[in-house]
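Run: sequence + nicotinamide-adenine-dinucleotide -> complex structure.
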Amino acid sequence: MKIALNGPLPEDPVFHPNIRRAPRREGSLSEQERALALKNALRYIPEEHHEKMAPEFLAELDEHGKIYGYRFRPKGRIYGKPIDEYEGRCIEGKAMQVMIDNNLDEDVALYPYELVTYGETGSVCQNWMQYRLIKMYLERLTSTQTLVLFSGHPVGLFHSPESAPRVILTNGLLIGEYDNLDDFNRAWCMGCSSYGQMTAGGWMYIGPQGIVHGTYNTLLNAGRLKLGIPNDGNLAGRLFVSSGLGGMSGAQGKAVVIAGGVGVIAEVDASRIKTRHDQGWVNVVAKSCEEAFNLAQEALNKKEPLAVAFHGNIVDLLEYAIDHNIKIDLLSDQTSCHEAYTGGYCPQGLTFDMRTKMLDEDPGTFRTWVDRSLARHFEAVKTLTHRGTYFFDYGNSFMKAIFDSGIKEISRNGENDRDGFIWPSYVEDIMGPLLFDYGYGPFRWVCLSGEDEDLRITDQAAMSCIDPERRYQDRDNYNWIRDAEKNKLVVGTKARILYSDAFGRLAIALKFNELIREGKIGPIMIGRDHHDTGGTDAPFRETSNIRDGSNVTADMAVSVFAGNAARGMSLCALHNGGGTGIGKAVNGGFGCVLDGSERVDNILKNAVLWDVMAGVARRSWARNENAIETAMAYNQIMDGKDILTLPYISSDDLIERTLREA
Ligand SMILES: NC(=O)c1ccc[n+]([C@@H]2O[C@H](COP(=O)([O-])OP(=O)(O)OC[C@H]3O[C@@H](n4cnc5c(N)ncnc54)[C@H](O)[C@@H]3O)[C@@H](O)[C@H]2O)c1
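>> structure
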């Protein structure tokens, strides 16, 4: 028995002119490697078509830097349909198809033709031949088989017990010596590796809603920490400035409005502004810096929330604010700096189209433009922070990109990046201590029926599992889910994000499974962003508030992935890179299909607490106070069923004296 792309070739590809296209990828392949890229792509194609496809693939490689196999993209719109419209032999096989198609929906994905969901390069898989094959396998998958994928390539189906995962996938993992961008790009362009980012390659992306909640939490807590806003207050009358209205960054306007503040977000690409404006995620579009800040000031005076999209470069916007003495309360950046030289960061002085052209024609010169712009950007942020603005790095490798461009001054020790950078990453100050250390993280679900009513019922059910009086974090989450429908957050499938801690997630998941059992709702896929308490080791982001020296290790992410697989989560994913770039993170995620069965109740009881508490255990061992408190409480509740190792805390005086007297 063989699963392969048989039959006649699909027709010539058709491209809709209004759909965004990825820039050319830079792989610098040698002649021998070009030959390998061709041979690799032809592995998916029956021999009788090689004569035709070899030159077509070569043309794609030369034009796009990578072979996408455009002709194999199914015709028409791809989107996450109701689960019953998919073929399959088990519910998980059908559910995964909903998730994949949602990740490639042109309303959801950044570059749908290139299979990129978000973050400039975060891909579902590498090419359309893989997409077709994956679907064929998922249609055939039974409840006693596991589909295994290596960087988007479906390796095959392997028999496994019913209690095993139905899909195990990895993306972009590299051998240490080759774990760098150049070697990755080469492997990527040869069709041997894929950049899964986080939920793109893990098929759990649910549109920018996924990050609205995290951004809302971050902004509110930044206000509490730095602007003196009380725990029950909001950002009314406060100005937030940032950049990017793309896949994830597109959440910023919506989040600041939900938090009650005013945001001005710079974006160089008019098409992305249009998408967010049409969705109502930004309220107004300004063509000049002056117009943007005037609109913002009016709203600030009235203490009304407003999201302004500024069509232009963030560096121009910041330099204008400096020259005109505009007070910015909170400042961040969400350009794709983790891919600064491959298109993620548009240098000052180039329009979006000019950036695409230069990247294509002269990537060497493009690098010098990026470096020059990052230097101006750095100076602008420095001036604003001296004037009292609170700047935080929002997990896009902004400060790392500045450091890599040669500006050592941005590192804390002035030499290397081991001790971090002069400004905090939002995880160091906010998300780490106030959320991850307690186990709060971006739990999410997708109503596989596609029914609005299912989403409404699950929102209510999730709300009933939160005690808003316990902590202010619970209050924020309660308010979030209470207003979620009103805030019109859904783009793509009927999905929801809700920050929640370990026991909260378990309670919600079990409640959903019960509702399915009672026939009140259809099946649900639960999961989370990889950007979480335990899923990701990333010293410049998720684990940047780990300060015991273990921030260079990736044991936690790998162990959480393995533990989730052992406990039977339906989909287990492990990736290199994530939001901070190749070699800078190892991150994992999961998906679990709820079908109302007792079997799934058992998976949830075994896996959900593990997934979160392994992360809390690591954070607690790193001596993070809130994590120690959470781990101690957990040990008490679990009463010997789970036992987390707790650290003894040494006195700083003792350490200092010991070293001094040695
Ligand atoms: N903090 C988090 O939780 C989190 C989550 C996801 C992604 N990220 C990171 O945030 C970054 C953005 O993610 P995304 O999915 O939105 O990527 P994206 O590539 O879809 O969007 C980035 C946007 O920035 C715009 N841009 C680039 N340079 C600009 C400039 N100089 N001025 C104005 N606009 C500019 C681009 O046109 C693009 O629309 C990535 O590095 C990603 O890894 C962070």
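>> summary
The chain has a mean pLDDT of 96. The two ends are 70 Å apart (CA to CA).
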